[in-house]
Design goal:
heterodimer; A: 7 strands; 15% strand; elongated; B: mainly alpha; 2 helices; rod-shaped
Chain lengths: 261, 48
């Protein structure tokens, strides 16, 4: 048996050449990117379980536990379907990121982007001062039609006054999120998906969770003003950055919405 | 001793997510060995 394994190893190593190094490097990169992508999501716990099952399978095979190996083999037959079901949100987010282009809006001029940022930052700074809650999503490459349709279409030129007015407490449109596309406020009172990221602080309210949820499901930049503390937060790609000053927000937005020439 | 910007970048390149890099490397080597083993023996599928 030992001779057979040595023979097998020898024949495997006979296949080893410079192409093998490239193959291993590509595999390394792919595995690393998958791990990085799954880090901090609930899929990590499922991945751990799957890795334990795979290791168990090899151990059972080595020890000659044929029945258990057979059961695991049958289980692996459904493995791909199971992965597609279990990791559906992660797969969707991953494919969205894989297929997205790195442009803001082709038909929006650089000055218009700056104007949009200025209006948003002014409104956000004022609302943070007055502790008025707000949720603003800025569309980038991926369409937000599904979320726009849940709200009320406004389609108006952006202005800080209008934004502040929308979020003013007890007005009909103050609850929900606003979607901004280019220089226009497209829609208000929109419903955004709530994140189920277990690593988020438990004290975070629904507004922050909706911001993170939308940023997980699209490439939108989502700004939140806390009603409770008057703090400004920003959600991008499922990551929430909290306690930003209006100046920080301006700089980050400028970087994120930069139009590639 | 002054540490240059490139040294800092190199350090973060190596040590950022160090264990993830090690685990993914081990996994990549195991996967390659398994696949080349299958190729060498000419047997596809799982043997029991």
């Amino acid at each position: 048996m030992m001779t057979f394994e040595l023979e097998q190893l020898r024949s495997m190593l006979s296949l080893f050449n410079w192409k093998s190094v490239i193959e291993i490097l590509i595999l390394w990169f792919v595995f690393y990117r998958i791990f990085i992508f799954l880090k901090g999501t609930k899929a990590v716990y499922l991945l751990r379980g799957i890795i334990i099952l795979i290791i168990s399978f090899f151990v059972f095979q080595k020890l000659g536990f044929h029945v258990l190996s057979l059961l695991l083999t049958k289980f692996f037959a459904f493995f791909l379907i199971l992965i597609a079901i279990i990791f559906q949100p992660e797969l969707r987010a991953g494919l969205i990121r894989l297929g997205k282009r790195h442009f803001f809006l082709v038909d929006v001029k650089k000055e218009d982007i700056e104007k949009t940022i200025k209006e948003i930052v002014t409104a956000v700074a004022n609302m943070a001062k007055k502790k008025i809650g707000a949720l603003i999503a800025i569309k980038r490459d991926i369409g937000l039609k599904d979320f726009i349709e849940t709200g009320l279409v406004i389609d108006s030129e952006i202005s800080s006054e209008l934004l502040e007015n929308i979020f003013y407490p007890f007005t009909p449109l103050h609850d929900g999120g606003v979607v901004v596309d280019g220089t226009r406020i497209v829609s208000a009172v929109c419903l955004f998906p709530i994140t189920d990221n277990p690593n988020l602080e438990k004290t975070l309210g629904m507004r922050h969770r909706a911001a993170v949820g939308l940023s997980e499901n699209s490439d939108a930049v989502v700004i939140v003003v806390s009603e409770e503390k008057g703090t400004i937060s920003l959600a991008i790609n499922g990551q929430l950055t909290r306690n930003l000053s209006p100046e920080d927000l301006f700089t980050i937005l400028k970087g994120q919405l930069r139009r590639e020439e | 001793m002054k540490i240059s910007k490139y040294q800092v970048n190199l350090k973060s390149l190596v040590f950022n997510n160090f264990w993830l890099k090690i685990i993914s490397f081990v996994l990549a080597v195991i996967t390659w060995l398994w696949a080349s083993g299958e190729l060498a023996s000419g047997i596809s599928g799982i043997r029991i």
